[in-house]
Amino acid sequence: MTAVAIGARRRVRTVLSSRLTLLVARLVVIAAVVAAWQLGTQAADSPFFLPPSQIVPAMYHQWFSGPASHLWLTPDATANLLPSIGRMLAGWAIAAVAGIAIGVAIGRLPLLADLTEPVVHFARAVPPPALVPVFLLVFNIGTGMELAAIIFGVIWPVLVNAPSFEPPLAR
Predict the structure, then answer these.
(1) pTM of the prediction?
(2) Residue 116: which domain range?
(3) pLDDT confidence bin for 167, thresholds 50/70/90
(4) Does residue 76 or residue 93 have the better pLDDT?
(5) Pair (54, 102) in one structural domain
(6) Residues contacting residue 163 through CB under 8 Å, at least 6 positions apart
(7) Do 119 and 159 belong to one domain?
(8) Are residues 16 and 37 in the same domain?
(9) Is residue 67 predicted with pLDDT exceeding 90?
(10) Based on the structure, what is the number of domains in the chain?
């Protein structure tokens, strides 16, 4: 073997070794956190803070003890999980279409970009969970409120990264 090939093999081994070490360290941290959670909740003996040894079997029974024809999901899981995934995908799709359309319009019209830049930068700095009370007031509890929160959280990154969007200062 040539010296180059030997050096390349050593570099690959070093990279793999460091990645394996990092993975093991992360797993040890996770195991330590779960162990501390288990010991802490057992010591507290509170009905409000359950240990993971009680949570995991209950979660399995409530979500994953269904028939194989339904991917082992229980009726409760499918009744809750599938509509949630549908709302999430609908919110993403609406935000993508609206964000791209608005972003392209803002990018193509300099006057519109100048007028909307402060609003866009302010609105994207607002965390979506902070607006949940406003969405509850406007849309009431239900799918509309949930979609509004998803759309508000997704639209800003899409709008700012739309093909023609450029903040006026960058021009």
Answers:
(1) 0.64
(2) 75-170
(3) low
(4) 93
(5) no
(6) 100, 103, 104, 107
(7) yes
(8) yes
(9) no
(10) 2
